[in-house]
Amino acid sequence: MGCGSRDAGGGSLSSGRRVIVIGGGLAGIVVALDCAAAGAEVTLLEVRRRLGGAAYSFEREGLQMDNGQHVFLRCCAAYRGLLARLGSEQLTTLQPRLEIPVLKPDSEPALLRRGSLPAPAHLAGALASYPHLSLLQRLGAVRAALGLMRLDPADPELDQVSFGDWLARHGQGPQAVGALWDLIALPTINLPAAQASLALAAFVFQRGLLSGANAGDIGFHHATLGETVGEPAERALREAGVQVRLGWRAEQVQCSGAGLEVQCRGARSEGVSEADELRAEAAVVALPHARAATLLEPLLGDAARAWNGLGSSAIVNLHVVYDRPVLDQPFAAGVGTPVQYLFDRSAAAGAPAGCQYLAVSLSGAEREMKMSVDDLRKRYLPALEKLLPRARQAKVELFLATREHAATFRAAPGTAALRPGPRSAIPGLVLAGAWTATGWPATLEGAVLSGHAAAHCTLAGLDLDGPIVEAGAGSAAGGSESALAR
Question: What would the CATH number be for the domain defined by 18-50+226-310+420-461?
Answer without folding.
Answer: 3.50.50.60
